[in-house]
Amino acid sequence: MEYFVQQLINGLTLGSIYGLIAIGYTMVYGIIGMINFAHGDIFMLGGFAALILFLILTSVFVGLPVVLLLLVMMAAAMLTASLWNWTIEKLAYRPLRGSFRLAPLITAIGMSITLSNFIQVTQGPRNKPIPPLVSSVYNVFGISVSLKQILIMILTVSLLAIFWYVVNKTALGRAQRATEQDRKMAALLGIDVDRTISITFVMGAALAAVAGTMYLMYYGVIVFTDGFVPGVKAFTAAVLGGIGSLPGAVIGGLLIGLIESLWSAYFTIDYKDVATFSILAIVLIFKPSGILGRPEVEKV
Amino acid sequence: MAAGANLMNNDPILKVEHLSMRFGGLMAINDLSFEARRGDITALIGPNGAGKTTVFNCITGFYKPTMGMISMTQQSGKKFLLERMPDFEITRDAKVARTFQNIRMFSGLTVLENLLVAQHNMLMRASGYTILGLFGYSGYRRAKEQSIEIAKHWLEKADLIERADDPAGDLPYGAQRRLEIARAMCTGPEFLCLDEPAAGLNPRESQALNELLRSIRKDTGTSILLIEHDMSVVMGISDHVIVLEYGQKISDGTPDEVKNDPKVIAAYLGVEDEEVEEVIEQIVEIETKQGGQI
């Protein structure tokens, strides 16, 4: 039992990270119907930005409080990743918006390769380690919960609350939802659709950067290929939860995290990805729109 | 006289000059010029395929015209060349709003949200582009209350106040039509383009629509350009009628003038029954003279 709860907590932590990345996929898909395959690499880039800032800060200001250090790292990661995603959208995706559906998809894959190669060239191909920043571990009824895990979950929940509020209660979120439903009509009501789409990319990248920072902190190492597997898993999470749905992305993320850690705990760790994607396949067969996705009903 | 000073009440608000729109080999609009006067309800009529909706699409930035100029003069005297502006600026800056022949609601948003989306720019500025708004900045709260007031005002006018929190897609057809007009009015337009607002309405609903349009003009001074097939609406409320056929203007004047214009009768209403036989006889004569067969 204790073992099970332990795995549950590990799974939820991992799932939080997947969920945060998945939000970026789902928001971009919602607003322009495109899958931004470079999103996973934006997540990795966020992690690298945090790492670089950590190295600078710790060498310039020795003995900086950990909380402050983490906050600055996160802010820098969010800023860098947002800037990159904003630029990518503007340069690579916007000119193709009126084009056929596959064009932006292929471009996105191209951007993904570009980003990971850029990091490989500039940062080197080796694993980059970071010393443990937060190492306290609490023992509750025989279950060990690390402070890192608690931090990750609290951060995820609070970011989700902020994002839920922005999307559902503010003028910006309303404009995003309107653009999602009918881009032309939104423009005719005076909404700057291009800017709204840019903001969506920036928001998604900021969340991915937070996830990247947490990933770096949790595993203590990052490498240029780290955008791929977590990116694909987060994409799976978005599809599993129902692509286009914000709570769906989070639920999908948590589910993927749980499946992965429970499978590794009770079966063989080598097949954990197979398990994840098999469950995705099964869900898609029986509920193609995902867990919370709305099926598209065509009125005749 | 200085530009922009002393604008008469009846000066043109919208001036379309030598407008042409070509789609490949098809000339949808051919050298069309007309004016809509400030405070008037101007109707654009004509048989199907005459190019009425294309004119609307050029005015609201959906299409870039092949040739010609569309200028809009605001109450303040400020002038905008609509054919050069991107679509969202036409609404935001030039203050032109439009509705569609086939209703385009944000059906997943509530009725109230549909009206708030239309006030997006004002709310974004007031909320410091969302950031100040998140921290509960008081100016934003005031702007938010004000936008809800405006929305409520139009909901009452359109008789939809009880449905404010329902998804817009759940409203019956006639109510969606009124909501679309209310939403266009929430953008604070000076010039409102309505594409067949009475299409699919029953006589009672089109009466209610007439009332709504009249009260819009009376209370807000908004000028209206209207495409309509329902002659009871056209003749009942418009001050000025423009008739199009094959992308060209064939008549322009008050409803009475247009109604009695022989060209309009021939093109739009068709020839009368007795005349049809005469026409057939003439054709038969011509063809036999040429030695052809019928």
TrEMBL record, chain A:
Transmembrane regions: 12-35, 42-62, 68-88, 100-120, 140-167, 199-222, 234-259
Gene Ontology CC: one annotated term: plasma membrane
One Pfam short name: BPD_transp_2
UniProt topology in membrane: Multi-pass membrane protein
InterPro entries: ABC_transp_permease, BCAA_transport_permease
CDD domains to which the protein is assigned, alphabetical: TM_PBP1_LivH_like
Keyword terms of this UniProt record: Amino-acid transport, Cell inner membrane, Cell membrane, Membrane, Transmembrane, Transmembrane helix, Transport
One GO MF term attached to the UniProt entry: L-valine transmembrane transporter activity
One GO-annotated biological process of the protein: D-alanine transmembrane transport
Main location: membrane
Localization, UniProt: Cell membrane
Signal peptide residues on this chain, from the entry's feature table: none
Family: Belongs to the binding-protein-dependent transport system permease family. LivHM subfamily.
Protein's recorded name: General L-amino acid ABC transporter membrane protein
Organism: Mycoplana dimorpha
Taxonomy of the source species: Bacteria, Pseudomonadati, Pseudomonadota, Alphaproteobacteria, Hyphomicrobiales
TrEMBL record, chain B:
Similarity section: Belongs to the ABC transporter superfamily.
Keyword ATP-binding assigned: yes
Protein's recorded name: General L-amino acid ABC transporter ATP-binding protein
Keyword terms of this UniProt record: Amino-acid transport, ATP-binding, Nucleotide-binding, Transport
Lineage of producing organism: Bacteria, Pseudomonadati, Pseudomonadota, Alphaproteobacteria, Hyphomicrobiales
SUPFAM superfamilies: P-loop containing nucleoside triphosphate hydrolases
InterPro entries, A to Z: AAA+_ATPase, ABC_AA/LPS_Transport, ABC_transporter-like_ATP-bd, BCA_ABC_TP_C, P-loop_NTPase
First and last residue of the signal peptide: none
A Gene Ontology BP annotation from the UniProt entry: L-valine import across plasma membrane
Organism: Mycoplana dimorpha
Molecular function GO terms recorded: ATP binding; ATP hydrolysis activity; L-isoleucine transmembrane transporter activity; L-phenylalanine transmembrane transporter activity; L-valine transmembrane transporter activity
